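Quick one:
INPUT:
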C-alpha cells in the first residue's frame, strides 16, 4: 500500500466542527475519520452543484466579516 500526505484548507470553525462530529481531538484523526466515512457512505454524491453551494457559503461568510 502506498501512503501519501495530503493537505486542505479549512476555516477554524469547520475544523472544530469536524473534530466534534468525529469525536476526535486531533486534526489528523478527525480528517481520517471524515475521509473514511466519505469513501464508505452510499449517500455521498459528488457533483458540481455541491461544490458551487459550498463556495457560495464560504464567500458569503467572508463578505459578512469584512
Amino acid at each position: 500500500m502506498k501512503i501519501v500526505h495530503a493537505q486542505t484548507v479549512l476555516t477554524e470553525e469547520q475544523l472544530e466542527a469536524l473534530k466534534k462530529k468525529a469525536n476526535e481531538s486531533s486534526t489528523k484523526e478527525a480528517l481520517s475519520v471524515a475521509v473514511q466515512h466519505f469513501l464508505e457512505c452510499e449517500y455521498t454524491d459528488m457533483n458540481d452543484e455541491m461544490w458551487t453551494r459550498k463556495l457560495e457559503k464560504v464567500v458569503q461568510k467572508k463578505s459578512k466579516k469584512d
